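Per-residue structure
===
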Amino acid sequence: MTQVVRASLAAQASPATAAERPEVSVVIPVYNEIENVEALASDVWSALGAQGKTFEVILVDDGSRDGSAEALRRIAAERREARVVLLRRNFGQTAALSAGFDHARGRVIITMDADLQNDPQDIPKLLAGIDEGYDIVAGWRLDRKDPFVSRRLPSMIANRLISWVTGVSLHDYGCTLKAFRAEVVREVHLYGELHRFIPAVANWMGVTVREVPVNHRARRAGVSKYGIGRTIRVLLDLITVKFMESYSTKPIQIFGLLGVVSGGLGFLGAGWLTVQRVLFGASLSNRPILLLYVMLIVVGVQFISMGLVAEMLARTYHESQSKPIYYVKELVEGRDART
């Protein structure tokens, strides 16, 4: 069952004034990485310390059972920039990232994995892209250190498919190492496995996306949490992303189109059979295709009805929560408007 934690965790996040806000927040979900978290902290603080920017590192323990939570507590006790969020159980990477976003106070939010395969030394590349004006800067693991058949090949196929379906062309949707402007990522609500689709989900807001090659390191310790079975879940979430991107505010256009096509074919076929029966006396009792045409008409009516119900739900969703159907990038006022 899909787990959603944004609302409850947002209420727990402590607000920060503009003066207290760090320039960069790094969000790292952690699940059973006891052998890596100490080296991870050392690498991340070394990379960020050289940037000369104020920063915080939000370490989200996703219900680890190997002592990772205790290790994160020690890191927080030793490093003032560390903030540790402990989830009550394992909710999954998407929920852990969402918890990190809710607690992040930085103007730029960077995400990365805790398995040491992402290189923190690539963070300056991501920040440079943000400084150039991009809203999202995604890492591209050009020389990926993973098995080809079980990891790289499915990823290559999925990346091509996601880029084609969403219209946001990236070589590596699965790379967690990304940088986001905070105002962009906070408008993206994550469910299921949608964390890898953030550039595609945010695309309808009109964001600009850049992809930069990053270093990818072989796993030093621990066990990978990814498997080929995740591919099916990614494909299902891709259907959700495409629907939400194209039809979330106008579902009648997809359901209605299917209904019109189905019902139209049914009416045309049934009409032709009626002509044959009335004008030519053809027998219909031995022609099961009549049942097919009747079914097409019924299915067409059902699709149109579903579209109308979906329209009502979409309007309720947006209006009851004051959900915007657009996002303003900038408001420029003339001198007379301010007087």
